[in-house]
Write a structure and sequence with these properties.
seven-stranded antiparallel β-sheet, 144 residues, alpha+beta, 7 strands
Length: 144
């Protein structure tokens, strides 16, 4: 299962990057991943607190990519790879003129991927849309 969402943000890439990697501030603006315990550092272990449309869950992840100001990615840890592999990759593209494209991709593979798709794809997609819109609002706001 691969889900994606993109949005153009009227803010420079460095501004969007600074909001994206400020994990302690997620509680102030991110409705999907409303809390992250751990740092945005490659190799770090983090716990994502995720709201799947009213169903709150915690996900143990490993940060697999921090490439300023382009990419932040984390993948599932603690689950046998044959059972489930998952990764969320958030990518920024400089569109010029102080504009940035934000792409968010969620990939889930393995034996339980069909069940995840059946029961959670809609909720995950809604979460990707919500975080994209919230990131746009946060980065375009003059107050932050």
């Amino acid at each position: 299962m691969t889900l994606t969402e993109s949005i153009d943000i009227d803010a420079p890439i460095d501004r969007v990057w600074s909001v994206l990697v400020d994990l302690p501030a997620y509680a102030q603006w991110n409705p999907f991943t409303y809390r992250v315990d751990g740092p945005a550092e490659e190799g770090a272990r983090v716990v994502l607190h995720v709201d799947l449309g009213g169903m709150k869950t915690r996900q143990n992840m490993a940060v697999v990519s921090v490439s300023p100001p382009r990419e932040l990615a984390w993948s599932i840890r603690g689950t046998p790879r044959w059972m489930m592999r998952g990764q969320r990759t958030q990518t920024l593209t400089d569109l010029g003129g102080g504009r940035t494209r934000y792409d968010n991709q969620e990939v889930v593979e393995g034996a339980v991927a069909p069940l995840v798709a059946l029961f959670f794809a809609g909720r995950i997609q809604a979460g990707l849309v919500a975080v994209s819109q919230a990131l746009k609002a946060r980065c375009e706001s003059p107050a932050t």
